[in-house]
Specification:
19% strand, alpha/beta, 653 residues, 21 helices, eight-stranded mixed beta sheet
Length: 653
């Protein structure tokens, strides 16, 4: 009787429970919005030189520019303690640039706190007396540190960059565009990381895009660790890159015929020949200036760049022994879309654990059978003790309705890892797909989208883009979040959102993918013993599985073209045990704390927002402009009355 009363009361409270849930969801959404707004407000205040605590009377507050002064003073001396203090050659090709831009670029070099540098300037037949005077003045101020050459005729960017490389006497080269600027700590950070990674031959840093007057266009671009597949689609490394000079000579420098995409082509070839993958330096060291003639503003400024980029990417895929590929330029994301040929017609085994919930599992299976364009598949339903007569009847009829369907029975207690392993043991396919029973196919080519990458020898698990019932994103690759264990990138964003270099629309490396829809080659699944049944059976099995594959050298990919609905945990609810949290943190503590694809300057969250607790080291725009302009006046003997000085002064205001 008491049980009946409790049930009646529980049902009567259903409207109140639904209202409470919606209120909690609304509160979380509001919290996210306010957090993002507050973060933007704080960054705006910092850019104006107003600290977060400036309005308080707290003891010990120092304005940001004072903190930066101390930091830069530290870097001026700290480099002397490094074992290696190599000369850095700055390659600076110049062509018909505004003289004020060139002065600022050179002034930013003069501001460097690491002094062992040289500049190799090659003018590509600009025929501009102002450019000549600027370079001559800089050379006079820094005798012995400036090499200068003028092409007799216009040779374009690749040949001009090679001419600069030919003059380099440093052990390392960095690339600087004639209209961009380095932050004062740029070379210091490169030297610091060179000493930390003495075997590395390529480094890249974070950057920020600025308007013509130096005003930032949004926040800095805090990049992920080296991601070869992502780099095929976009040269996210771009600025600032440092290369060992001997490596550049080994690969033949810049290639003519790839103008506009010469930097992308260079890092793809350099990464293939280097002793170890390029090392990411998580400091913003470079300002990439947007103006009507720059590729930073739009590829339309240099349409040939896209054509040459397609050629560079296609050749890179061929050199790496990847399957034949079709490369197209995406004018929406400004990335390259890659479509790899699937080798052969491998059998794909789709494993679906379930118990009762007929409407859910039937919708899942029917969506796979009716919508999938890949036909060489089998579906293995692992029935975990269903006792609903309708479900049992449907399972019994499946093999006669569709010969590709089979049912494996297991009456033991719920163990998600064991059920998937049982399905894998029964599978005949070369590739396995772990699929939740509450998932439904949206994109007909979802299997092909995943299979084209799962077939690659160095790729482990491949994941899909999963959407909630309301169309918002549930999963777009996994992120490791320290004490929070793990989360789903871009969660609750809407399709089409352009967050973080179009993360939703771009195939990219990630630390794990959810087992709600995960494809992996059978041999790789077996190599790590499948999913962990004994100690991480339910809550974080996919994280543990992917990290186990990572430990063997495999990388994981999020593939947006594999699009499905996921009615998360609709059939079983959550089954996360306290012990599983403790165990996975014990096994993978370092990995969880340092997700390589989540820049340390970003918050440990799912939206790629800037970290607020430990602000990144970056000069405020007004302060940086002041430093550059003051150095330019000093270097170029500018009294402050010339047109260039007037232009710089107006920039500061």
């Amino acid at each position: 009787m008491a049980q009946v009363v409790r049930k009646i009361v529980f049902q009567a409270m259903r409207p109140a429970r639904k209202f409470l849930k919606k209120s909690i969801d609304a509160a979380k959404t509001l919290q996210d919005l306010l957090g993002e707004y507050y973060g933007a407000h704080c960054r705006r205040m910092e850019s104006l030189g107003i600290g977060l605590d400036q309005e308080s009377s707290g003891v010990g507050y120092e304005p940001p520019h004072v903190v930066q002064d101390k930091y830069l003073k530290f870097t001026r001396g700290q480099w002397q303690y490094f074992k290696s203090k190599p000369k850095i050659s700055i390659l600076l090709p110049v062509y018909k640039v505004k003289t004020s831009y060139l002065e600022e670029a050179l002034a930013s070099i003069a501001l460097q706190t690491y002094p062992n540098w040289e500049v190799c300037v090659v003018d590509d037949a600009s025929g501009d007396a102002g450019i000549d005077r600027t370079i001559a003045a800089f050379k006079e101020k820094f005798p012995g540190q400036v090499h200068h050459h003028v092409n007799a005729r216009n040779l374009h960017i690749s040949a001009t960059s090679n001419a600069a490389l030919a003059m380099a006497t440093g052990d390392w080269c960095v690339l600087l565009d004639h209209d961009d600027r380095l932050y004062p700590n740029a070379l210091f950070e490169i030297i610091r990381y060179m000493n930390l990674h003495p075997q590395a031959e390529v480094f890249y840093t974070d950057e920020i895009v600025v308007q013509e007057d130096g005003t930032p266009m949004g926040g800095p671009f805090f990049k992920p660790a080296w991601s070869p597949v992502l780099n095929l689609q976009t040269n996210y490394c771009a600025h600032l890159c440092a290369y060992k000079t001997s490596l550049l000579h080994q690969i033949g420098g810049f290639r003519t015929g790839f103008e506009g995409s010469q930097d992308h082509d260079l890092i793809m070839r350099a990464s293939e020949q280097a002793q170890m993958p390029p090392v990411h330096i998580p400091f913003c060291t470079y300002q990439w200036r947007v103006h009507p003639q720059s590729t930073a503003s739009s590829i339309d400024a240099k349409p040939y760049a896209a054509v040459n980029g397609i050629k560079a990417v296609a050749e890179a895929c061929q050199r790496r022994g990847l399957p034949p590929v079709k490369v197209d330029y995406n004018s929406q994301t400004y990335h390259y879309d890659l479509q790899f040929e699937i080798l052969g017609q491998p059998l794909v085994s789709i494993i679906i654990p379930t118990r009762n919930q007929l409407s859910v599992v039937r919708a899942c299976v029917e969506s796979v059978l009716q919508k999938s364009t890949w036909k060489n598949l089998e579906i293995i339903i692992v029935d975990n003790g269903s006792d609903d007569p309708a479900t049992l009847a449907w399972l019994e009829s499946l093999s006669s309705v569709s010969p590709v369907c089979r049912v494996v029975r297991d009456d033991g207690p719920f163990n998600f890892a064991h059920l998937n392993n049982l399905g894998a043991a029964a599978a005949r396919g070369e590739y396995l797909v772990l699929l939740n029973n509450d998932v439904e196919v949206i994109a007909p080519g979802w299997i092909e989208a995943m299979l084209q990458y799962a077939q690659m020898r160095d790729i482990g698990a491949v994941g899909a883009q999963l959407l909630y019932a309301d169309g918002s994103v549930q999963h777009a690759g996994g992120l490791l979040l320290g004490d929070w264990i793990a989360g789903h990138a871009c969660r609750k964003l809407r399709p089409g959102d352009r967050t973080y270099i179009d993360a939703l629309a771009t195939v990219r490396e990630c630390s794990f993918v959810t087992a709600a829809c995960l494809m992996v080659a059978r041999a790789k699944f077996d190599a790590v013993g499948g999913l962990e049944e004994a100690f991480i059976p339910n809550g974080y099995g996919d994280v543990d599985f992917c990290l186990s594959l990572s430990a063997k050298g495999y990388r994981h990919l999020y593939v947006p073209g594999a699009l499905l609905h996921h009615y998360e945990s609709k059939s079983r609810g959550r089954a996360i045990e306290t012990f599983e949290r403790i165990e996975i943190k014990s096994r993978w503590a370092r990995d969880l704390a340092l997700d390589p694809y989540l820049n340390p300057n970003l918050a440990r969250g799912e939206r790629y927002t800037n970290e607020g607790a430990f602000p990144f080291a970056l000069l405020a725009p007004k302060d940086f402009n002041h430093r550059v302009n003051a150095k330019a006046r000093l270097v170029f003997n500018d009294s402050g009355t010339s047109p260039l000085a007037t232009a710089r002064a107006s920039t500061q205001t």
